[in-house]
Prior knowledge:
The chain is of the alpha/beta class. The protein folds into 2 domains: 23-52 and 296-393, Aspartate Aminotransferase, domain 1 (Alpha-Beta Complex), CATH 3.90.1150.10; 60-294, 3-Layer(aba) Sandwich (Aspartate Aminotransferase, domain 2). 45% of the residues lie in helices and 15% in strands. It is built from 15 helices and 13 strands. The protein has a 4-stranded parallel sheet, sandwiched between helices. 46% of the residues are buried. The model has no long low-confidence stretch (mean pLDDT 96).
Amino acid sequence: MGIRKGAWKGLMFQRTLQQMADQSLTRRLRVLESATGPVVQFSNRQVILLCSNDYLGLATHHAVIKAAVQATEQYGSGAGASRLICGTLPPHQKLESFLAEFKGTESALLFGSGYLANLGIIPSLIARKGLILLDRLCHASLIDGCRLSGADFRVFRHRDSAHVESLLKRRSPNRPVLIVTDGLFSMDGDLAPLPELAALATRYDATLYVDDAHGTGVMGPTGRGTIEELGVEHEIRFHIGTLGKALGSCGAYAVGPREMIDYLVNTVRPFIFTTAPPPGTAAAAIAALDVIQREPERRARLWANRHHLFHGLERLGFRMTATVSPILPILIGDAKQTLIFAEQLLMHGVYAPAIRPPTVPGETSRIRVTVTSEHTISQLDEALRAFELAGRASNLI
């Protein structure tokens, strides 16, 4: 007697999940019982949260919450449709104006998420006959956008501009090329060599595509991002970023010349065919941009906390990446050992989950520690004591 179709699918799911479990690669959803902050309620106790991308604590800032509530009361909880049908509302337009002004560009365009932006914009910029050069450690959304484009793509060694140039020299004459990179790499905390990549793009008539999701609000003298930090705002006139990290809201943006943004409005499928972001989230991001500019001390606290925690982890003897940001990855390697370490940390009052493949390459599992401006020094010292106890219990230090 044969296996019913539904039962066969169930067996397939079970088999796949078991294979993942055998490699310590399964994941499960964990529910926080409070708002995201430096300390959260988890499983009926308080733990220090060291994995949030809310770098400046704006997700719980009173002005940001107030703006979201007021816009929701005025315009409703949802936009109703794609913006090209009936979904454009004043908060969308105002946020785009604010973003363009903040980033020093002519225009801006909102998206529902950074993933949607990358899935749509990359295929709109490069045709099937084009060539994409992609950093090995780019975010999954960039990789998937490259695949969807149908263009050929080559992976270059992480942050290796010489490798990029060698690939550019071998391209066919007049073949369109898109160079794709993160600005600040989310799993390693290091920066792309944007000055070198921008120079190569100019020299070889290529287009440089930068996703600065983790740089916006964090990097640069005024928080405009990695492009400001590295002094290439005049060379890189177009990039994308997110509203869901340092800006404490959700969604994403593209900023650049007006003609280019108009082109994206008419060609990017995830923009054309997706309901617009809720007006409340757009209003929250507007308020967050205002706070970033009015309260530079938040960024100063973030960097002071970053240095305190980084040096403390180094003194304990953990193996760190070459990070230059508030992302502080502790390299472990083995996925199972990383899971054990994460559970030990949680036992000692720190929530910083294991990061394993496919999020990072094989044998590079890690604890990705992130710090915010709202952590206190006493909380960070308490966290360092937890790292020491968990590290010794896990035989990592």
